[in-house]
Write a structure and sequence with these properties.
The chain is about 60% helix and about 10% strand. The longest helix is centred in the first third of the chain and has 88 residues, at about 25-115. With about 300 residues, the chain is of the alpha+beta class. It starts with a helix and ends in a 7-residue tail after the last strand.
């Protein structure tokens, strides 16, 4: 309690004691007594209000201290986050630089790869050169020739030399697979009749000629099969077998498979353009590699398996 309040209370008590032994108060004294009582009540109210305000002040001060501590902590956290953000920005800048360098390297490698010719484009260029040379020689000798036949024979020679059935057999024995695309076939330098026919068609098509498949089904119940090609030039179809490297020719013209099978002695029309190693092996094993193609019992289907254009 404040000192002034104590003094005031003592004065009131003394006055009350003096009044107790005196005569009845006068109206003025009664008025003073009433005023003193009123002031005493106000003093109690003010004292109580002061005490409550002190409590609220102390609570506010405590809350302010807590808030200041929180502000300090947030400032520390903000400083830490700012530091982490700066580190992340630096790391991002470095990673972005590394990414850009990697992308530039990839672009450089892709440009370098783009300059490397595919196996099929190498084959087409080689056949083109052979065709140009052959037609130049034939022209200088005054020998008539068919451009389609020269292209087809050059393509067949290339396929016979670069699509090996023996290499394909080695891959199979060793559990290796081969995709049926000209680039994969020529890249592996391996394949059997289906691979050879597909690759031959792809090369010849690059020279603007249409090619269709010729399939054979022979043996017991037609369980064996083979596939070769026919090329359209000079207004008709002409048969070429890029697996075994031969065709049928009459009077200088390569026949279709239908015309070859219709002749009395197809074997006399057979022309071997470029025998490959596998044909030699089969010949040594007394395997008849081609007579089934003109055997009347063989079933022949034309373009049952279209080649991609």
């Amino acid at each position: 309690m404040k000192k002034s309040a104590i003094v005031f209370a003592a004065a009131v008590v003394a006055l009350a004691a003096a009044s107790a032994g005196a005569a009845a108060p006068t109206p003025r004294q009664a008025s003073q007594h009433a005023r003193i009582a009123h002031l005493t009540q106000l003093n109690h109210q003010l004292t109580k209000r002061l005490r409550n305000m002190t409590i609220l002040r102390d609570r506010a001060n405590a809350a302010l201290v807590t808030a200041n501590d929180r502000i300090h902590n947030l400032a520390s956290e903000n400083a830490m986050l700012q530091s982490q953000n700066a580190e992340l920005q630096a790391s991002l800048t470095q990673r972005t630089s590394e990414r850009d360098a990697a992308l530039a390297k990839v672009a450089s490698l892709q440009s370098a790869l783009a300059t490397i010719p595919t196996p099929l484009s190498v084959a087409v260029e080689q056949v083109r050169r052979e065709v140009v040379y052959s037609e130049n020689v034939l022209g200088n000798l005054g020998i008539a020739y068919s451009h389609g036949q020269v292209v087809s024979q050059a393509a067949m020679d290339y396929v016979v030399a670069h699509v090996s059935a023996a290499a394909y057999g080695y891959m199979e024995v060793n559990g290796q697979s081969l995709q049926s695309t000209p680039d994969a076939i020529l890249g592996a330098q391996a394949g059997i009749c289906g691979h050879a026919a597909l690759t031959f068609a792809a090369i010849v098509q690059r020279f603007g000629f249409n090619v269709r498949s010729v399939q054979f089904y022979y043996g017991p119940d037609g369980t064996f099969n083979h596939i070769a090609d026919e090329v359209s030039y000079d207004g008709t179809w002409h048969y070429f077998d890029p697996t075994y490297g031969f065709y049928y020719e009459q009077n200088g013209i390569v026949l279709s498979i239908a015309d070859a099978r219709a002749t009395a002695d197809p074997a006399s029309l057979r022309r071997e353009d470029n025998a490959n190693f596998w044909v030699t092996i089969e010949d040594e094993a007394n395997v008849d590699v081609d007579t089934f193609q003109t055997d009347p019992n063989t079933v022949v289907t034309i373009d049952q398996q279209p080649f991609p254009s």
